[in-house]
Amino acid sequence: MPLLGADLRRDLEIRRYPILVYGLVPLAALVLQAWLPRVLGQFAWFDLPLVVTVYFALCRRSPIQGTLTGAAMGLFEDALTQHPIGVNGIAKTIAGFLAASVGVRIDVENHTIRLVLIFLLSLMSSGLVMFVSRFMLGLDYQWRWYTALFAALGNSVIALVLFPMLDRLQIRD
Amino acid sequence: MDSFFDRYRNLLVLLALLLAQIIGLAMQVRRTSEGRGTLDQSDSAGVRLIRLWAEGLVSPPERLIHAVKLGSQHAWENYLDLRNVRQQNADLEKTVDRLRLEQASLLEDAKQGQRLQALVGFQQKYIYTTVAAQAIGSSGSEQSHVFTIDKGEDYKLAPDMAVITPDGIVGKIREVFPSTSQVLAINDQSSGAGVILQTTRIRGILRGNANGRPQIIDILADNRIQKGEVVLTAGGDQIFPRGLPVGVVDKVIQDPERDSFIDVLITPAAHLDRLDEVLVITSTQPRFNQQQQQDVATSEAEKGAEAAQIKEQQKASQIMAERLPGLIDPSLPADQQPLHDTSNPNPVAHPPQALHPDRFSPGADPNSGAASAESAAPDAPDRTTAAEPDSAVTQQKPAGKPAQANHNQKTKPKTAQPPPTSPRRNP
Questions:
Q1: May I ask the CATH class of domain B50-82+122-283?
Q2: pTM more than 0.80
Q3: Is residue A173 part of a domain?
Q4: Are A68 and B17 inside 8 Å of each other by CB?
Q5: What is the ipTM of this complex?
Q6: In the predicted model, what is the mean pLDDT of residues B265-286?
């Protein structure tokens, strides 16, 4: 794994995107996440808001921006459910922060690293949702490990396709 | 100090955001007496505002996608996929003709059923006011079986209204927004509906499990529950009307937490994963059209006429009873009525001693010679007339049919004379 020093990473180019991309891509992720399960039924094993959060956190290389993006996406996800608002928010806030922190230190251009990272962050996010719901809030929350595993795999596959597409939207000098 | 904030700026932002969300969660969830967390059914104003923003942001694109989907379906079905339509049309016309004949006979049964249900007060089970709505989105979470419909306050929807399809129940409205509503499906873990098994009449509570399948909980182990048994709504939850189809029993499993209880897994009647159109029950008041109202009015009129006829008969019987010798004095208590009076004002006149006793004579042996009986038969009525019975016994005939009783007595042939112990006489 090509590890780089933090100072060197900061010196690297930070990707920039048109302002519309920052607004429309997360919105599209939220809308598709709400609409696709109606089409796919119980096979909707993915979390598009998490994929988008991780992508922007990795590419912007700013932990604060990653944290804020993750919090906003998670809170919006919670608002569309009947669950308390903040469960997904906490999970994606931490995921965004970690993705951005890792993005400063490793070469995120490598597709394998991206896939491994999104897989691990998906598992961590599912685990955090379960932890907050069951242990912090004491809610009657039943959790299936294999669903979390399938969702992590689904997110990795989606990232494999989506990340190169989003790379094309960046502003190049 | 500045260097501290600069150095740990990222971490401080993270902690601040986490702390804010944890505080927000603590305000939404409260602890029960058992130490478990529970979520208030109704959101606070702040939480509702966040949900309203999210819904307002996501709903327009969802509507657009849904409209595009419907439009493309419409275009395909009506313009492109028209092969063999002529043949299908001919077949359908034949089917329509056949169904018209069937409908004519079924219509009579339906009207009769509506009329009878109206009469016995079961209207609420049959007809409701509903609003058709399209499912345009879902929660997007695998753990949350909530979906969005395209009708809201603009159609006077309200929380806790039942949502159904022609196949079966779907869920209830959880949150209503200006132009959309959030529906909690019956396969969600936080849902709840009172249900009853059709054959065994066992009641339970329906809710979803972790796999998103509805199951009946809180049922004592009972081996009568078999696969395929129909499950209906029980009507006790004040949300779903009674008797709506829920699904069929798929499997019975042991409750993992309680030994003596079982969980009954249900295959839902409605296709919860592929919902397009749903009906929201906005009112449980009966809604009859003009023809149905006329039918009900006719039934009521017929019922009234029948009651009037019975009343008329009772009145006639009363008048007849008054004309007959008084047996019942309304001013006297029951035990002092003339029927119970042992002092007979018309004492029985004992017949004189017969000059030629035969088998009909009082006190004579009924098995006496037949010849003497035949010879004495023409005179017997006169003698029995003399044997005046107790008038009270004679007048104990039903008051409603005095004329018929008299008629029978008059037309009865004399050859069928009763034994002397039950003498007859016209009053």
A1: mainly beta
A2: no
A3: no
A4: yes
A5: 0.87
A6: 84
